Amino acid sequence: MPTSILLPQVVDAVDGRVPVIAAGGYFDGRGLVAALAYGADAIAMGTRFLLTSDSSVPDAIKDFYLGHAVTDTVVTTQVDGVPHRVLRTGLVDKLESAGGKIASLPRAALNAHKFKGLTGLGYREMWDEGNAMRQSMGLSWSQMVMAANTPMLLKAGLVEGDVDGGVLASGQVVGLLDDLPSCSELVDRILSEASLTLESLGATDA
What we know:
It is a single chain. The protein is mainly α. It folds into 2 domains: 1-56 and 179-206, no CATH class; 69-169, no CATH class. 54% of the residues lie in helices and 7% in strands. It is built from 11 helices and 4 strands, in the order H-E-H-E-H-H-E-E-H-H-H-H-H-H-H. The chain has helices spanning 3-14, 29-37, 46-50, 59-66, 90-96, 98-102, 104-119, 123-137, 141-146, 149-159, 183-200, and strands at residues 21-23, 42-44, 73-76, 84-87. It has a two-stranded parallel sheet with strand order 1-2. Strands 3-4 form a two-stranded antiparallel ribbon. The model has no long low-confidence stretch (mean pLDDT 86).
């Protein structure tokens, strides 16, 4: 569902009881003004902050992101059973293939073993945590088993810089980004753009 439809519904539903933070497709001051106009209190920007000079993501991966268009992402359920928007890569195409879907549970078991080694958790603790997540989120048993894929595949892509062995979470906004500002520069730019946008709309309090 587009943010422009979802956001006002959420704002109306919570009716000021909790802050509303809009997410999905935001990257500049114009988006901030639009979100505020819909009633949001703030915006969240995942892909935009990922692609900054301060981000700990390997530079080669940042460059890889910058080479993609708005049509180069895909929503897949083959990472852990729930929808994730990621960059389309050879690995994602493989996960989405018939063979990839057949191998999803064995792959999840292997990643669960890797996750155990990474976190120091025991299998019983992992099972209890996964089952609690399954019940609270209404997941199937297979989705619960596949949950270990997400941290390991994201770690491979965004920490280790392995495009062929990991997944790269991304919004469609990736196709509109072409630079790597610092976080400070980005925030200053967005505030400046928001002020100019308000001025152009005739807002006297800009």
